[in-house]
Amino acid sequence: MAASKEQAKEYQVKAVYLYNFSHFIHWPKNLLELKTEFNICVLGDNPFSSALDYVVSTEKFHGNPIKVHYLETVVDAHICQILFISQSERNQLNTILDYLDKQPVLTVSDIAEFIEHGGMIKFYMNRKHQVRLAIDPDTLREADLEADANLLRISQIMSRK
Predict the structure, then answer these.
(1) What's this model's pTM, rounded to 2 decimal places?
(2) CA nearest 54: which of 91, 16, 85?
(3) Of 14, 39, 53, 72, which residue is least crowded by CB atoms under 10 Å?
(4) What per-residue confidence (pLDDT) applies to 8?
(5) Cα 59 to the chain's mean position, in Å?
(6) Which conformational region is residue 118 in: left (phi greater than 0), alpha (psi within -120 to 50 degrees), or beta?
(7) DSSP β-ladder status, 60-61 and 64-71
(8) What is the mean pLDDT of residues 23-27?
(9) Distances from the Cα of 86 to the Cαs of 5, 47, 67, 73, 124, in angstroms?
């Protein structure tokens, strides 16, 4: 029981991070001007329960509502600004990241070696069981995204190369 409570709390923290990435990642301006909503998507199993929906329920991004979408296949990811790739998609990770290659979709996961496979931001747990971030700024730049200096400051900088 304690383990499931810890995991629920862990994904509540990750849900807040996913929302906050909207403030610390810069997307191409022309892309955002075409959108009427800002979409955070979860591909595969939903580890967040209702936490992600709750976090964004009253939030806006540049005046537009933030919506959460739960996807079963990566082909629907074209609507996403942020895409969380669940552990359930581990075996398809290379296919997913190849499909999204250089598209302005922020890819986030807690899959081990996510960065090394071409992901942008990885959640990991430190020794104190706190959620931490690893980020690959080069992969972001290749997709025409940019991380704010404050996000880089709190992240472990990694590279897939």
Answers:
(1) 0.94
(2) 16
(3) 72
(4) 79
(5) 17
(6) left
(7) antiparallel
(8) 95
(9) 19, 7, 18, 12, 13
End-to-end CA, the chain: 40
Give the separation between CA 44 and CA 140, rounded to whole angstroms. Answer: 22
Phi and psi of 34, rounded to 5°?
Answer: -80, -15
Question: Residue 37: left (phi > 0), alpha (psi -120 to 50), or beta?
Answer: beta
CA distance 156 to 50: 28
* SS3 per residue for 87-118: HHHHHHHHHHHHHHCCCCCEEEECCCCCHHHC
Six token digits for residue 40: 């955070």
Asked if 85 and 111 touch (Cβ cutoff 8 Å), the reply is: yes
**Residue that has been written with the tokens 């009427």 in this structure:** 36
- The pLDDT-based confidence of 6 (bands split at 50, 70, 90) is confident
